[in-house]
Amino acid sequence: MLLLGxxxxxxxxxxxxxxxxxxxxxxxxxxxxxxxLNEANHPQIGEYHYRWVLEPADGExxxxxxxxxxxxxxxxxx
Length: 78
Known about the structure:
Helix content: over 70%
Structural class: mainly alpha
Radius of gyration: 12 Å
Number of domains: 1
InterPro entries: TPR-like_helical_dom_sf
CATH architecture: Alpha Horseshoe
Organism: Acidocella aminolytica 101 = DSM 11237
Protein name: Flp pilus assembly protein
Mean pLDDT: 88
Strand content: under 5%
CATH class: Mainly Alpha
Number of strands: 0
Distance between the termini: 23 Å
CATH topology: Serine Threonine Protein Phosphatase 5, Tetratricopeptide repeat
Number of helices: 5
């Protein structure tokens, strides 16, 4: 998250991808990947990661649900 705040998107994406690779069943890793991809103007791919978190949780992940809503609201470039 700190890297996103600094605008270091490439480095943030590298770390998020590593998190998903190391812990593919970790919801926080997928939520972070979604955040990074949205910031990198890839909202459709970010949406995939948000939905991955929300599907088994039946919508019980309010932060991820809010992130998905924000992602869907953004203009699509990919």
